[in-house]
Design a protein that fits this description.
417 residues; alpha/beta; Molybdopterin biosynthesis moeA protein, domain 3; Beta-clip; six-stranded mixed sheet; 30% strand
């Protein structure tokens, strides 16, 4: 299990920028060390433990990229069509069995090995047939429509770097190299619970002034998408001793404890005090909206992150704090999602020095440019503002105002989960 000391989180005080917070986390984390070897199809979504080096050339042999006719470029006329007899035929998975003589062409199909001495392929739609002869137009360059051995990836070259999250594309490359198993970091083990006397789990009756817990389900779904092994610890009531005991118990079998609610400074926010009782905590306030109150600490060597209680703030802080944290803890490479430029249809003002995320829906404008329209409700507890929008407009710290027509950075929800 990944072990952390309290000084790994010895930062706080003034509000931290999102970038500074992520950089500090990544620099101080010790990732999980255990690895396991799994078949390719079980590797999707997992973190690669060791570099994968190409053991063969890809492609492994010189082959045709199209259906057509293979020739020796030296046999072609420079200023006129060339007419050559067709002396053979080679399909994918077969070989001609000998070199092509000077002044001959060979019928060839996509993926078939290039016959010895040939170096250029004419596409079948570019030629004309005259009985057993093929008429080849002038102007083709030497080596056209051919794929040399190792063109995609030569033997001995780095194919996949350690720390990469395995995707279907990465699985395709590994399979093309003949790999059947990959060495992967074990899954990060995360304990999740919600706090508060005011919330109950779906399926249970609601009492007076109570509401159903959504945060615990949001967090578990997000964590599972990122390959974590999740333990649901349910809802902890507003009792400092009970929360402290649960934290201590969770620390024994997990790499990260993740909670929502109870991390602000109110009299009924008991999680902060419980973490200080069970371990150590530096209250980390991010210069971010929604989601400023985020607590980080250590309980018996296990990392702790406490997120705000409002559902939208939970989603935003998970995307910009927990997601990169989890990547680093799992031995991966935290990477900030790339914001794509879109045109704003709304006016908005914000404080300087704080990064803000505005929920927006996308539509194509009259001139074809993608436009972002702000959701009509800003509240951090409005869950429909997530389901009725496509992503977030990211407003950096230096921005104080957005006007209709301004270009802004858009982050699709698909990039954040």
């Amino acid at each position: 299990m990944a072990q952390l000391s309290s000084d790994h989180f010895a930062f706080g005080g003034a509000l931290l920028s999102v970038d500074e917070a992520i950089a500090r986390v990544a620099a101080r984390l010790v990732p999980v060390a255990e690895t396991e070897r799994l078949p390719l199809l079980e590797a999707d979504g997992r973190i690669l433990a060791h570099d994968l080096i190409a053991g063969v050339d890809l492609p492994p042999f010189f082959n045709s990229a199209v259906d057509g006719y293979a020739v020796r470029f030296a046999d072609l006329k420079a200023g006129d069509d060339t007419v050559l007899p067709v002396s053979g035929r080679v399909a994918a998975g077969a070989a001609l069995g000998g070199p092509v003589r000077a002044g001959e062409a060979v019928r060839i199909f996509t993926g078939a090995p290039m016959p010895e001495a040939t170096d250029t392929v004419f596409m079948q739609e570019d030629v004309r047939l005259d009985g057993e002869r093929v008429i080849l137009p002038k102007g083709l360059k030497p080596g056209a429509n051919c794929r040399p051995a190792g063109e995609d990836l030569p033997r001995g070259r780095l194919a996949l770097v350690a720390g990469r999250r395995i995707t279907p594309e990465a699985i395709a490359l590994a399979a093309a190299l003949g790999v059947t198993h990959l060495d992967l970091r074990r899954r990060v083990r995360v304990a999740v619970f919600s706090t508060g006397d005011e919330i109950v789990s779906p399926g249970n009756p609601l009492g007076p002034a109570q509401l159903y817990d959504s945060n615990r389900f949001t967090l578990q779904a997000l964590l599972r998408r990122l390959g974590a092994e999740v333990t649901d610890l349910g809802i902890l009531r507003d009792d400092r001793a009970a929360v402290a005991a649960a934290l201590t118990q969770a620390a024994r079998g997990h790499d990260l404890i993740l909670t929502s609610g109870g991390v602000s400074t109110g009299e009924e926010d008991h999680v902060k005090a419980a973490v200080e009782q069970a371990g150590s905590l530096t209250f980390w306030r991010l210069a971010i909206k929604p989601g400023r109150p985020v607590a980080m600490g250590v309980v018996d060597g296990t990392a702790f992150i406490g997120l705000p209680g409002n559902p939208v703030a939970v989603f935003v802080t998970f995307a910009h704090v927990v997601r990169p944290f989890l990547a680093a803890l799992g031995g991966g490479m935290p990477e900030a999602p790339l914001a794509l430029p879109v045109r704003s249809t709304f006016a908005y003002r914000k404080k300087e020095g704080r990064r803000e995320y505005v929920r927006v829906a996308l539509a194509r404008g009259a001139d074809g440019t993608m436009e972002a329209t702000k959701h009509p409700r800003d509240g951090a507890g409005v869950i429909t503002s997530l389901t009725e929008t496509d992503g977030l407009v990211e407003l950096p710290e230096a921005v104080t105002e957005v006007k209709p027509g301004d270009m802004v950075g858009f982050l699709a929800y698909a990039l954040l989960r």
